[in-house]
Amino acid sequence: MQRTTHSLKLLSRVTARQFRCHVHTVAASPRTTTPSIAVWAVAGGFVATTGGYLTWKSTMHNPVLAEAKYAGTVEEPSTKLSFPINLQTDSDWKRLVGLGPRTVSFLGINVYVLGLYMKSQDIGMLKTLKGWEHFDKEEFLSKETMAMTLLEQPMDVTIRIVPARGTNMQHLRDGFTRSLLQRMRDQSHDMSEEEERQVMKAIQEFKSQFPLSNVKKGTEFVFTKTRDGALKMEYEGKDLGTVKNAWLAKNFVMGYLNPTTPASEVARQDIAKGFDILLNSKEEQQ
Known about the structure:
Elements: H1 2-11, H2 16-19, E1 39-41, E2 47-49, E3 54-56, E4 63-65, E5 73-76, E6 81-84, E7 86-89, E8 92-104, E9 109-118, H3 120-125, H4 137-142, H5 145-151, E10 157-163, E11 167-168, H6 169-187, H7 193-208, E12 214-215, E13 221-225, E14 231-235, E15 238-243, H8 246-257, H9 265-280, H10 282-285
Antiparallel strand pairs: 1-2, 3-4, 5-6, 7-8, 8-9, 9-10, 10-13, 11-12, 13-14, 14-15
């Protein structure tokens, strides 16, 4: 425990207060009716809805469809930011599984919107994995097991992040780093000294990839857990760097999928709903 505490102090002045779990409030969708859905086919035999995506009200019980701004995109209702249904990264097309805003709970301010993307053929392969044969949304939401099984596969998993307000690289970097440090602290009792040293080195490398600059609202970050276990980072189509550490790549994504302290509970619920539709809905697989 002393070793872990010492290592954390070396990397960042993160106080116990900063490590505290925050409960994120969910902004209710302004829509009160459910629009019709236009259905179209996407690569890999799956079917997507160009009419909208499933998001959640503050009660997290009733899915609400938000209409797309134009064909091929969906709009996150609380920020009005549009996300493409299909995203091209490294010559590969990935489809949107789910999205939602990252909100500062005590102020009710949307910081950014994130969406999770995967290749359609990789989504289809999930049914061959243990625990994914018959996707159980509640199981996915209640435990880390299914998400970790997904991230251990040689598959690309992409997180697209779009700021909902002007900010800077340092502010976003520090938020990402706090999430990684929290994940490390939670797992430190299972790490050897060498494993902990390698993780700290990877987090330090991750921090160093962010240049000193302002970030405009509506610009795009793309973080990809690659099939070979690295974390590739891009901003506005420019390569920020790649951290070749499997722990960091998996745990960056787990910052959005873990059931205890997710960066966005709205996004986590929507991602689970997206997997449920893609893997279980008969209409989606026809």
